[in-house]
TrEMBL record:
Pfam families the UniProt entry points to: Phage_integrase
MF GO annotations: DNA binding
Keywords (A to Z) from UniProt: DNA integration, DNA recombination
Organism for this UniProt entry: Agaricicola taiwanensis
S-adenosyl-L-methionine keyword on record: no
GO biological process, one term: DNA recombination
Domain Tyr recombinase: 169-360
Protein name, as recorded: Tyr recombinase domain-containing protein
Annotated stretches, region: Disordered: 364-393
InterPro entries for this protein: DNA_brk_join_enz, Integrase-like_cat_sf, Integrase_catalytic, Tyrosine_recombinase_XerCD
Endpoints of the signal sequence: none
Extent of Basic and acidic residues compositional bias: 364-380
Length: 393
């Protein structure tokens, strides 16, 4: 009996540059290979991320025509699971292009496998292949895709995804002197032409970004998408009169990354009033136009200031400073737009009252003779109490 040919499924291939007989040159381009058929993505070698998004769209278009229900895991291709997630869920994410790129990475490894192939050992192999940090985030997407697929009634089995361990926590917040260096460097930087500094200040939008992000703990994207004009529905509104920053634009739907209104502190208000009087519509603007993101300019500024930081570091810094100042956790969580659980798990150890009761109780010494019993008996009693309270946590 002839052996059935097994296809590899849709995949990306970088077609090299080609010279035709008429002398014309066809540049290198990513193409989608699928069962002997090539489809150009139009993306060159420097646009791998966009090519992966094109691959995800192709798979979605091809496989979403039919959705058989109530199948076993051995009947389901992982490419189908990821395609459904890319079509139904990913477009609603805050950064769908990043989700698409991660799905593209998952497809390289899992695309020709079946859902039943998802085991602890294969997840560990994937983590070894990609590295723990990247693999964990991508496998979180895969877990969400598998869960969505099952809840849609397309598979009757529960398939578990094993995630690699989280990386060890590191200091990801800035001191006040480091923030001052970033601000001073951004404010004073002048454009350089032909080796000489001009009179044009080219990073003051970065300085304004730093002030807003730090004093409100707002995510970078929401800071860039802010405006003094309430009529701009696609931008968050800074209400100077009521001293409130409505971080979520009217036209935007709420996501898991919450953007509740935040009151504006006095130090920031002085800057905001001055910028509005200067005629600015967007506080983070460059040549009068709103800046979509400050990632590149911020990185260069941080390098010049010799400070290790990214735009998101400012949000970590705001959360850390709030905890270090002894702010009520519930109030701080609301101010930052994050859950109380996330705040306590990530930043709670910075609070001056962190485990204060345990610290006080363990350092409080009592005379064991007055309490009765031997020192050994009393020590055993204390250990029992500590274990008892630990079990309630």
């Amino acid at each position: 009996m002839p052996r059935q040919r097994v296809t590899k499924g849709p995949r990306l291939w970088l077609q090299p540059e080609r010279r035709h007989k008429n002398g014309s040159i066809e540049r290198a381009v990513y193409v989608v290979l699928d069962d002997g058929i090539k489809r150009s993505t139009g993306c060159g070698p420097d646009r791998r991320g966009e090519a992966e998004e094109a691959l995800a769209r192709y798979i979605a278009e091809k496989r979403l025509k039919d959705r058989p229900r109530d199948r076993s895991a051995s009947e389901v291709m992982m490419a189908d699971v990821l395609a459904i997630y890319a079509s139904d869920v990913a477009p609603n994410h805050a950064r769908p292009h990043e989700t698409g790129a991660r799905i593209g990475e998952l497809l390289k490894w899992w695309g020709d496998k079946r859902l039943s192939d998802v085991t602890r050992s294969t997840c560990q192999q994937y983590a070894a292949h990609r590295g723990n940090s990247s693999a964990r985030r991508e496998l979180e997407d895969m877990r969400a895709a598998i869960t969505y697929h099952r809840r849609e009634g397309l598979c009757r089995e529960v398939v578990e995804v094993t995630l690699p361990r989280k990386a060890e926590a590191r200091r990801n917040w800035l001191t006040r002197s480091e923030v001052a260096k970033l601000l001073w460097t951004a404010w004073r930087y002048k454009e350089v032409q032909q080796g000489a500094a001009t009179r044009r200040y080219r990073r003051r939008h970065v300085a304004r970004f730093i002030l807003i992000a730090l004093y409100t703990g707002t995510r970078p994207g929401a800071v860039c998408r802010s405006s003094f004009d309430s009529a701009l529905d696609n931008f968050g509104w800074i209400d100077i009169e009521r001293r409130l920053f409505y971080r979520r634009p009217v036209a935007a739907t709420e996501t898991n990354k919450r953007r509740p209104p935040v009151p504006l502190p006095d130090r920031l208000m002085a800057h905001l009033r001055r910028w509005e009087r200067m005629g600015m519509i967007h506080p983070v603007d460059f040549n009068g136009e709103p800046v979509r993101e400050v990632k590149i300019a911020f990185r260069r500024n941080a390098q010049d200031a010799k400070v290790k930081a990214t735009p998101h570091t400012l949000r970590h810094t705001a959360a850390t400073w709030l905890m270090q100042a002894g702010t009520d956790p519930w109030e701080a969580a609301g101010y930052l737009g994050m859950s109380l659980e996330t705040l306590l798990q990530t930043y709670g150890h910075h609070h001056p009252d962190y485990m204060a009761g345990a610290k006080r109780n363990l350092s409080h010494r009592k005379d064991t003779e007055k309490m009765g019993g031997t020192k050994r008996e009393h020590a055993e009693s204390n250990v029992t109490k500590i274990a008892h309270y630990g079990g309630k946590r």
